[in-house]
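Co-fold these.
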Amino acid sequence: EIVLTQSPGTLSLSPGERATLSCRASQSVSSSYLAWYQQKPGQAPRLLIYGASSRATGIPDRFSGSGSGTDFTLTISRLEPEDFAVYYCQQYGSSPYTFGLGTKLEIK
Amino acid sequence: EVQLVESGGGLVKPGGSLRLSCAASGFTFSSYSMNWVRQAPGKGLEWVSSISSSSNYIYYADSVKGRFTISRDNAKNSLYLQMNSLRAEDTAVYYCATGPPLVSWGQGTLVTVSS
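Predicted complex below.
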């Protein structure tokens, strides 16, 4: 089973700042099958990034994903008020399709 | 518009059974793999199970293997999760989702396992 470790657990930033979220895998994620999701309280998660770096439909270009192998990054270039939420990475290259524990992005 | 609507959640005693359903509309259901993902209260996401479009490939998390069974009926545009031998730690909101990657999600159905 591939274990995904997300860091930091909590990130405190202000609107307009840049956010960098990390997701590290315990073994290589095949074909960069790594996705990022955003979840707000009381809502279902929303797909942001798939294939490590491809933005999902309708996702603003301030969200970007990068990385390969075991190290992946989600970057939000300029934080908007609606971006404060919990972010999860997930690998879907091999079963079980594990999630990280999440990074909570909070307003400073 | 893609719609996924889960149902079948509720309160069940430990050791009991429950069957969840997910009704799909707005897309060609028979062409997509489907998944169940759960979220315990105040906790993170946990992938539970996945089934391919023709049910040829089925995968489970270790935590539910042997107790849960995923299935689908493409004629009815429906996904199911039969949950047996339920435990307190199975208490969660259960989401169905297309993929992977998990592009479209339902709003979830709450399963509470408690005596």
